[in-house]
Amino acid sequence: GAGSIGIRAGLDHLSLPDVKDRVVVTAVCDPAPGRARAAVEKYNAGRAFTDLDDMLANSDVEAVTLGTPIALHYDQGLKAIRAGKHVHFNKTITITAVEATHLIDEAAANGVKLVASPGEMLRPHNQKIKQLLADGAIGRPAWAVTGAAFGAYHEQEGLRQGDTALTNVDPTWYWRKSAGGGPLYDMTVYGLHALTGILGPAKRVTAMSGVRVAEREFKGKTYPCDAHDATLMSLDFGDALFAFVYGVPAGSVAAFAQPTFFGMNGSIAGLTLNGQPFDYPGQEEALAAKNGNQKLLPHCRGIHGDMEEAHVFEDIMQLVDLVREGIPTLSTAEHARHVVEIIEAAYRSAENGMTQNLTTTL
């Protein structure tokens, strides 16, 4: 896909000279009329395709990054894996845990590597929080909270306001259930990756969910919204350690992608311990950087850390390092599968009114 995320997280970064000794874009695939061709011409990105099967069969592609609507990830990822391609999945990896498990198994059978966004545990501050909790900095953990509120959501992004193939990207799939839309799969997923990366896998989930904003407007046209945009869930991590997680139209009680942890002797909220900033590797550099702690991601120390969607570029480069040098990554498909199961189970709980047991781990 050469839509908003494909451009900002992929092509903008991968076209820069500092990565070309490790990865080169040799093809762009997008079914939107003229978009793949326009991307190839702008970024000198090899060949343009409008059909994934055609690209997989008729190009020298070794790895694929999927920047497409979430509901397409399973089918597209499976095709790429069976064609012997390594795959990076933008968040989330799939809609269901069963789909994610099938992809993981197929990748093993075909000898290819998978990396899945968002790699929140690559961030030094999350590693530090995990250490602080283990060291008893806030005493025995009592509970936690994380989530996201989307407000105007994606309709106001710059690459959606123009009339050219690369600036007229349609955001309306985010509002459709069938496409994998809604804030849980798209935004709350960040906090869930951090929360479970720090506390470990959750065991059970209970939730309420529904559609709060029934219609949205884009370029003067009104669209019905059936993807749930208001979800509140409770996670059980065992031994009476619970977390409150939300994906809502407005209002937040925790910083985006940065869970708050409450303990018997204090709290960690965002980047503060008991109200005071805590030290973590690169803290001063992050405070001085345009995009904060994105600058601390392993491949984003230079210009990439000042660009949009640097964290997704980082996950792409995690795949590159895994394939080329065998360097393990924390942006694993297994972690992504667990987060997908939480989201899937939350929707199921909201529908049947019952607490759902979780079966996957990290």
Q: Give the strand order of the largest sheet, numbering strands 1, 2, ... along the chain.
A: 15-14-13-12-6-11-10-7-16
Distance between the termini: 28 Å
Helicity range = 25-40%
The main sheet comes to:
9 strands, mixed
Structural class: alpha/beta
- Spatial shape: globular
Number of strand elements: 16
Strand content: 15-25%
Low-pLDDT stretches = none
**Can you write the helix and strand succession as a string?**
HEHEHEHEHEHEHEEEEEEEEEHHHE
Instruction: Give the mean pLDDT.
Output: 96
Compute the gyration radius: what is it?
20 Å
Number of H/I helices: 10
Summary, kept brief:
The protein is an alpha/beta fold and 362 residues long. It contains 10 helices and 16 strands.
Describe this structure in words.
This protein is an alpha/beta fold and 362 residues long. Helix content is 33%, strand content 19%. It is built from ten helices and 16 strands. It has helices at residues 4-14, 35-43, 52-57, 73-82, 97-110, 124-134, 183-199, 283-288, 310-325, 333-352, and strands at residues 27-29, 47-49, 63-66, 86-89, 114-116, 141-149, 204-210, 215-218, 221-224, 230-236, 242-248, 260-263, 266-269, 272-273, 276-277, 356-357. The strands form four sheets. A nine-stranded mixed β-sheet has the order 15-14-13-12-6-11-10-7-16. Helix 4 (73-82) packs parallel to helix 5. The radius of gyration is 20 Å and the shape is globular. The two termini are 28 Å apart. The model has no long low-confidence stretch (mean pLDDT 96).
